[in-house]
Amino acid sequence: MEPILSLQGISKSYGPIRALNDVSFQVPPGSVFGILGPNGSGKTTMLSIILDILKADSGNFSWFGQPGSPATRKRIGSLLETPNFYHYLSAVNNLKVTQAISGRGTPEDIERVLETVKLSHRKNSRFSSYSLGMKQRLAIGAALLGNPQVLVFDEPTNGLDPVGIAEIRALIKELSAQGKTIIMASHLLDEVEKVCTHVAILKKGTLLTAGQVDEVLANEDIVEVSAANPDHLRTVLEQMGGYSQLKQDGRQIQLFFPIGSANMEEINSYCFRNSITLNQLLLKKKSLEAKFFELTND
Amino acid sequence: MLSLIKIEWLKIKKYPAFWWMLGIVALTYPGINIMFYNVYQQISTSKNMAGEIAKMLLGNPFAFPETWHSVAYFSSHFVILPSILVIMLVTNEYNYKTHRQNIIDGWSRSQFITSKLCDVAIISFIITIVYALVATVFGFYSDSSSAYRWAEQLYYIPLFFIQSFAQLSIAFLLGYLIKKAFIALGIFLFYNLVIENIVTAYFTYKLKMDGVSRLMPFEMSDRILVAPSFVGKFGNDAKATYDRWIDAVPAQIALTVVFTGIIWLICYAVHKKRDL
User: Fold this and answer.
1) Do B7 and A101 lie within an 8 Å CB cutoff?
2) Which CATH superfamily is A5-216 part of?
3) Closest Cα of chain A to B200: distance in Å?
4) What confidence tens digit (pLDDT) does each residue in A260-276 have?
5) The pLDDT of residue B110
6) Cα angle A84, A125, B87; round to 5
7) Which pTM was predicted?
8) Contacts of B98 in chain A (CB under 8 A)
9) Is the N or C terminus of chain B more exposed, i.e. has fewer CB atoms within 10 Å?
10) Considering the domain A218-296, what is its CATH architecture?
């Protein structure tokens, strides 16, 4: 299947600062594609380039197999960096401008998206009177106009309260379930881990890794075990072999196996044969946070 | 194009500063003309010889068809008022970052500049309407006996539009390049009111190089609407100067159109390349 978005060798400098360095990856259709990176890693610069706000120094990108153009941008609902609206216009009038420019949606659609982002009760208030969270909601609403098949969200939960964050997360999952492709930049790892199917990690403008979340995260199987006597358990497990590393954290022992090689039944029966009854046996994927720190730490 | 105008009109009509500007223009244009009309009235209604001579010399600058010319000339001095609005409209886009959002939502970069060109055209059009209304009212009010000549010299209406559009385009260029409203406004006012006047006077009177003066950005289009015809009635020299000005108007129009065209080409070229 043709990728929704494809980047080839994108580089961008601001004077002496290299913001993006030869970045290439592809976003498959129907994916929720998380772009991760610490502050200043080039996430927003990259999104700005694919939305024609910034010009890349070299490299190119394509949307739907075509070079980026106004026509391709009209098919994408985008929220970049901050909610950008006319301060003196109401939510409805701001969305009318968005609608007229993008050609996405109808007047009825404006009511629908305002309902979705829970702004109907303030739809005629000026944008300048909105709270940070409401502004963010309006920007998400604007992106949803006309029900586009592709959405680009840059830090979508910025400024939202915990309830708002949960709502946006649910909304992203719902949109994903409808088959939409969502490209989302974030530094909130938990957020990405909960909703993304794919992830790309950037550090100082360089792409460290990109792919399916499972592939990027799970290069090791981690098995957590514990028993009433952890020291005895450890002694027994040390004689078992087959794993690459053993760590003890208080009463809990972690065994690291090459991906796909941990056999839970085997471990259980081995311990049982050695007169140990396990009170915990758990297969864990490496958390995104751990992976992120591993990749981005010098 | 029509859709761009519609979108810009939606942005403009809800902008409070637009209505303030329109209100002030709607007071200023009649105001300045009433002032000059009163001066004319005082001179021409005095019962002595001087009054009679003045009446004969001046004619009635506010009767048809001279009203089109006189009101255009006096009103055109207040281009600063709509200029403030033009600068605000472009710098707002930077402030609100909507200059980015418009592109993200699907405009091309050149469509964005075209939309701003529409802004300048819309505002020029509106102030031209205000001018035309004021000139019409003066025409009928000051001398109803010449009302039948209303259709003469109607070409001052498009000339007023061209001059306004040209000078507002300069305001736009400053706002567009400088991005900060107050700095752009400051430079615009200082240049328009002080620097260019000094430079123009220096070239015209000191160096006797009027050919340079007529090329100055504002002077170029100022000379599309020259002073009303009565200034040419004070002796042969004045008449010769006035005739020379009038004869130069077509050339000044051509220069203005070219200069304004260059301003917009610069905006299109810069916007095509620059990071937003």
Assistant:
1) yes
2) P-loop containing nucleotide triphosphate hydrolases (3.40.50.300)
3) 40
4) 788 889 999 999 999 89
5) 95
6) 50
7) 0.87
8) 84-86
9) N
10) 2-Layer Sandwich (3.30)
